[in-house]
Request: fold
Amino acid sequence: MKENKERDNLIVEIVDYTSAYQEAFKSLNEEWISAHFTMEDSDYKALDHPQSYILDKGGCILVALYNGAPLGVCALIKMNDGEYDFELAKMAVSPKAQGKNIGFMLASAIIEKAKSMHASKIYLESNTILKPAINLYHKLGFQKVAGKPTPYTRCNIQMELIIK
Reply:
């Protein structure tokens, strides 16, 4: 299995978001959210307006191209709460590309991007029924935290990564 993942890494390219990827950013996120939960107002704000909601406020979005097709996305949303620099959010990988290490590659790249932007702490919200995602976050060094208000009904776990 490891051999396949190494081979898949060769055909995955992580690129910066441009407006050409907006439909993929929205549809990949809608696909997983709708499969497990209900789309919420905060989802639509980010997915319908990534330029003004994420990029113009100092965040970024990365896109994973698998054989040239956008099959994974992940955002870093600037936080202004005094504790966290960014929120890792809107991470999605197409079911067609799951199991190919794309989530790990995307999340690792977004953490590196945060480091390059001098971040010291990254926050995220998720749900424990998303076991592969939770396992990935733990593998990347995220630890469970509690107590921040969240706009999402589906959120039942909050995590942070302290960047060294």
Q: What stands out?
A: The chain has a mean pLDDT of 93. The radius of gyration is 15 Å. The chain is about 40% helix and 25% strand.
